[in-house]
Amino acid sequence: MALVRRIGSSLLSHKEYSRFLDNRKWLEGALEGFSIENVLGISQLSSRPSVLMYGSCVSGTAFSNADADYAVLFLTQGNTEESSMANMLNYTHSKFIEVKREHHQKVLLSILEHIRVSFCSTVVKCEQIYSARVPFIRLFKSGANNTEGSHLDVSLSFDGPRNSLLLRLYMEGDPRLRCGVLCAKKWCRSQGILDARRGWISAYALTVMYIFYMQVTKRTARIIDESEVNNILYCMSKQMLEGVNECFPFVGDVCSCSDVDIKNVLSDLHGFFHFFGGSMCFDFDTDVVDIRKNDKLVSKESWLEGINHFDEKTRWNLLGYETIMIRDPYEDHNLGRSVDFFRGERIREVFRLASETKIEDVLNELAKQGRLSSV
């Protein structure tokens, strides 16, 4: 039986994805009339808020009961590079403008107050998380007609949608790679090593590691120029300015599934765990995981040379513990920065043990936990 059928029942459903799209539409409507110019005290941009979804639901790596993240960006025809706005806004090579990190809390607070005024009966509770690397507010929204409510994590991140779209291109372009990512994600989560907030790696970092492994071992021909996503976002922003605001390529529906040969994926999985868990392939002390096509780094030394002009605090914010060096495809930081030495050793041990086990047994173990159909 093809592997997709084995994991299909646990993937994000069309119904769940439609609910995310409905929440996106609701949030964009709730932001009608919100003005970034008034909040930041900048010159008129004729901008209006727009909402993009991001996260595993967009990238095609989501399982059932996953959440969606929502980024509030601002569409404009104006020039965002004027000196009067340079300290507050980022130019994104599209019609979207992004609020700079130091102003996120102020703008998110204003967004929250704007929504509360018009939708006080719909938003039953909210949480404000500003200490995270990407600050966000969590809105708890009541359901209509006695249906179950939902929550929305709302940020001002442009890199969230951009990273998610990049992964979506990889997942849709190579179904074999996608199946491997989904299986590796299930296994690593069952082993308790996927949780960046608690000092482990994130599911996003794991996906980047898997893509990197597939590329360097020539198991996939997919090497995507990161500027391709910028072009997609430019087209999206242009369409949205023109009033086309419903479905866009790659984000209008849940990522489709294609059958793949299970033997190939099992071989890939075994190789992946051996690549990062063994002692002869990837050297965590010297090597870097980097899936960029442009300005690619091949060693930790070259990465450190590029930031040697930063002070210790800035270096820590970018690289963290430097135990596992996983370069973000767009931002200048390490996706493995929260992993200390001991957790790094545990991650490698999980990979090593998986590489010494028949991959069929790994998947069957997930089946016993109710996470996957048996092989």
Automatic annotation (TrEMBL):
Catalytic activity: RNA(n) + UTP = RNA(n)-3'-uridine ribonucleotide + diphosphate
KW Chaperone (keyword) present: no
Class of this enzyme: transferase
GO BP terms: RNA 3'-end processing
GO MF, one example: RNA uridylyltransferase activity
Primary location: cytoplasm
Poly(A) RNA polymerase mitochondrial-like central palm domain ranges (all copies): 45-171
Cofactor(s) demanded: Mn(2+); Mg(2+)
Keywords of the record: Cytoplasm, Magnesium, Metal-binding, Transferase
Pfam families listed in its UniProt record: MTPAP-like_central, PAP_assoc
Residues annotated as domain PAP-associated: 269-334
Localization: Cytoplasm
Gene Ontology cellular-component terms listed: mitochondrion
Record bears the keyword S-adenosyl-L-methionine: no
Enzyme Commission number, as recorded: 2.7.7.52
PANTHER family reported in the protein's UniProt record: POLY A POLYMERASE CID PAP -RELATED, POLY(A) RNA POLYMERASE GLD2
Protein name: RNA uridylyltransferase
Organism of derivation: Trypanosoma brucei gambiense (strain MHOM/CI/86/DAL972)
The organism's taxonomic lineage, starting at the top: Eukaryota, Discoba, Euglenozoa, Kinetoplastea, Metakinetoplastina
